Amino acid sequence: MKKLKCKDCLKVAIFIAILVVFSSSCKAKDPVLPEYAGTWVSVNYLGTSEGFSWFKETYTFTETTFSRLMQLQLPAGEWIDLDSSNGSMTFNGKIINFTTTAIGRTSYEKGLPTGKITRYSAGSDIFDHYLLEIGQSISIPTEWSVSGNLMTNQTDYNFDGDFLDEGEARVYTRQ
Known about the structure:
Helices cover 19% and strands 52% of the residues.
């Protein structure tokens, strides 16, 4: 009788071991993110009436969302926040359609940016006014391509149906 109980215990132990092995191999795998996911930075200069200023634009992408931060370099070399936006993304082939759901702008003191951004949600009067002021739509189609650590975006800012006009292409580096 004791031999039968040992065999039964052995069978139960083997069954539990098999369950443990199979259940551990069926764990949910980490999602594979698309090649554009991550943080991308572009630094460019812009001519102003006072000379040239360096601007840094940083995008952070997840699978379906984006956030953007625009900064200005001060004469001392530090970067100060100017504006930001975030929202969702949808895809149609190589075209990403950005839909902005919130924007932010820095406040100014004595004509200089403070770097303190106040955010506004889509549908608010200030949100709509800001988009009108910068000449942008709430939804912007953009063609993106990734090659290694470089991402090129081409945005039809003048809405003429192509991405070929001056200022419509920008290159970003993965951070």
